[in-house]
Amino acid sequence: MYRTMNGEEIFIIDAHIALWDASKENQLNVHGQQFIDCFYDYQTSLSPKEYWWNKDDFLKYSEDRLIKDVFHKGYADMAIFQPVLLKEFYKNGFGDIVNSQKLTQTYPNRLICNDTFDPRHGKRGLEELEKSNERYNLKGVKLYTADWYGDSKGYKLSDDSTYRYLEKCQELGIKNIHIHKGPTITPLNRDAFDVADVDDAATSFPELNFIVEHLGLPRLEDFCWIATQEKNVYGGLSVAMPFIYARPRYFAEIMGELLFWLDEDRIIFGSDYAIWEPSWLIEKFMEFDLPEDIKQETGAELNLDVKKKILAGNAARLYDIDIDVQKEKVKNDKLAQEMNLSSV
Q: Coil, strand or helix: which one is 9?
């Protein structure tokens, strides 16, 4: 919980976190090293130096560290795992879905664990998605359209094979489709992360929510023109958030465009932990205001009411979370008791 200077409590949902294993033991080939090196470069290029991790720690970190960084230090009241497969680069995959699910079961009031799918897995993948939903009652999935599979270096949301999976999501009630659409990551391909295919899928599946993680950056204009037409398209701020420190004018321009083209009800906070820790992102966001010239040009306002929607209200609506009810649930739950003990 973040508290303002006047003592108001701000409920926080970090809608984009991960628990990964990029250790040498789990790397399948050179691409595993390239991928995590690129992540590390993002951290050291866009974070204050005091938040740079030791490189060895960055390869694989514990569940305890995640809980401490996201909840104890990071102000979050809830967080959502967004797993990534990358089975062509890592022996057991990059995102540790098994331990993410275990941690979610340990802290059910605090964590939601989405699953993922790859439409190139055909019938087998559809059956696995059904089983996963039966076991975990899924609320969402995270898709990585630039992931490799055999000779393929990506897929599109508009592919027939992807449509079969989106139909299955709709049938099962998995309504939140998070998609990495944004900056490329070595050795993945830029074109496979292009945001253009969101348009067709959002039109064809109006009952699903398409949360475009990373806003399609650097193709922000493409994203905004799609999202203004498709009311079931949302902007996930992960990757955009750290520019609040490294390039505050650029961050202000991004927020101005989002608030002009979409509205304050379709922008969702995510730290992209463990690339970036939520603590400093939230502190700087709460202190931030748009420059006057951007306010005048776009008509955008980033006041406290808007920030509360971005930091929790909008994600809560997509995931059927009643914030007032949730505040009571977490007040004395297992994690709250652990945090109270640790502060003694």
A: strand
Q: What is the pLDDT of residue 182?
A: 84
DSSP code of residue 54: P
Residues in the chain, pLDDT under 70: 341-344
Among 86, 176, 185, which residue's Cα sits nearest to residue 139?
176
CA 39 – CA 54 distance, rounded (Å): 13
Q: Which amino acid is at 253?
A: E
Distances (CA, A) of 57 to 53, 134, 189, 242, 301: 7, 35, 27, 20, 39
pLDDT digits (tens, 9 = 90+) for 123-156: 999 999 999 999 999 999 999 999 999 999 999 9
Q: Measured between alpha carbons, how far is 158 from 119 in angstroms, rounded to an integer?
A: 11
Q: Any bridge partners for residue 273, and if so which?
A: 17
Please tell me whether residue 178 adopts helix, strand or coil conformation. strand
pLDDT tens-digit map of 117-129: 999 999 999 999 9
Alpha-carbon gap, residue 199 to 172, rounded angstroms: 22
Q: Give the DSSP per-residue string, 207-234.
A: TSEEEEEGGGTT-HHHHHHHHHH-TTEE
DSSP 74-99: T--SEEEE-----TTTBTT-SB-HHH
